[in-house]
Amino acid sequence: MSADELGGSAGQPRRILLVAPNISRRMGGEGLKAMQIHLELRAMGHDVRQVTHARVYDEMRRDHPELAIDYLADGPVQVALNRLRLSPLLAVLNAWQLHRLATKVAAEFDPWVVHFTSPISPVLPYFRMRGSAVVIGPLNGNVAHPPAFRDREPRGKIIGQRILAPLQAVLGRLFRGKRDAVLLVAGGDRTVRALELGGCTREQMVPTLDCGIPDALIDRPRIMHTGINHRFVHLGRLVGYKACDLAIRAVAAADPETTLDVIGDGEERAGLEALVAQLGLGHRVRFVGWLPAGSALYDRLANYRGLVLPALAEANGIAFQEAMALGLPVVCVNWAGPQMLLSSNEAIMIAPAGVDAVIDDLATAMNRLACDGEAADAMAASAHARAIAMGFRWRDLLNRWQHAYHSAAARSAS
C-alpha cells in the first residue's frame, strides 16, 4: 500500500485526532490499545493528536513527553457522581465532556478524521460531532456469561441484557454519534446486533480485529516446547469475569507438581489470595503482580508451558493474542472472544458446562500439556501460524483501517 493510499506522505502527513478516556500502559486493555494506536499511527507518518483524561497525565509526561495530548480534568460534578457511585450518569457526563474537548481541539487542529478508539461498548453513548469525519471503534461487547455461569454475572449486567432492545432504541435516538460515524466492529454478530438495535446500519460497519500486537512481540522467535513442564501462568486483570478462581481450583485438582503464576492485579486479588490459603496452595500458586508489556514480560512467559485463562465474558482478550504470537499454548473457555481468535486446533477450548466440569477439564488440560512437550509445541506452532495469517501486527491492522478513514471522510464530505 502506497503512502498516498495510506492518506498521506512523508512530506504531507494526514492529521488524525484520537479520543479515548484513557491512554495508558497501566489501566487495562482499552488504555493500552489506545496508546498503541497513537504510537503506531505516529510511526506511520501521520500527525496525531490525542484527547484523554487527566488521570494519565503523570504517566504520559514521564513516559511519552513527545506526544501531543489534550487533557480533560474532573470537575466537582464528576467527583460527586463518583462518590455516589452513579456510574451510568458519570459515563454519560464523561462522554459529553470528552466530546466537547474533542470538538474544541478539532476546530483548531482541523483533522482529516476523528477516531474515538474507546469506550468499546456498543451501548455506551457517543455524541454527534458535526463537521468532522468520525470513526468509532473497534466496538466489541454485548457479552453475557455462559448459561451455566449466569449466577456469576453482575446484577447490573443481567438487567442490561434484559432491557437491551428498548434501551438501545432510546439511546440511539438521544445520542446519535454512532449513527453518524463509520464503525469498526470487532465483536462479530453479537456486537452488530446491539448496534442495529440502536439504529446503526450494516453499511456503516467495517469488520476488524479488536486489537493488534507490537512488532517486538511478533518478531520474537516462537517459544519451543520440549519434555515436561508443569509451570502455567494466568495473565490479566484480577476481576470477576476473568475467573482466576477456576484456574486456582484446577491447580488443586491437577498433578501435585503443577504450579500457577498469577501475573496481574485488581479488585479480586485479596479474595484470590484467601482462596489459595484456604486450599493450601501457597507453595504452588504465586501472585506476581502487574508487569508492563515488553521484553522482560515476554522473556518470562517463555518459561511456562501454557496460559490458563478461563475468562467467562471476554470480548476479545489481548492476552490470548499475545500468547498465540509468542507460541504459548492456551487453555481457555470456549465462549465469546476466544472463539473469534482460536479453534480446537490452536488451543484447548473448555466447554462452559459448569464450575465443577470446567475445573476438572482445566486440570486435565494442564496435566496433558505438562507431560507432552510434543503436543504442546504442535499447538503453539498452529496458534502462531494463525496469528500471522490473521494479521495481528499493529501496522497491518492499521493499514486495513485506512478504508474506514477514507469512508468516514467521504461520508462527512457528502
Automatic annotation (TrEMBL):
Residues 232-380 form the Glycosyl transferase family domain. Keywords: Glycosyltransferase, Transferase. GO terms for molecular function: glycosyltransferase activity. The keyword Repressor does not apply. It comes from the Bacteria. The keyword Glycosyltransferase applies. Its EC number is 2.4.-.-. PANTHER family: SULFOQUINOVOSYL TRANSFERASE SQD2. This is Glycosyltransferase family 4 protein. The lineage of its organism: Bacteria, Pseudomonadati, Pseudomonadota, Alphaproteobacteria, Sphingomonadales.
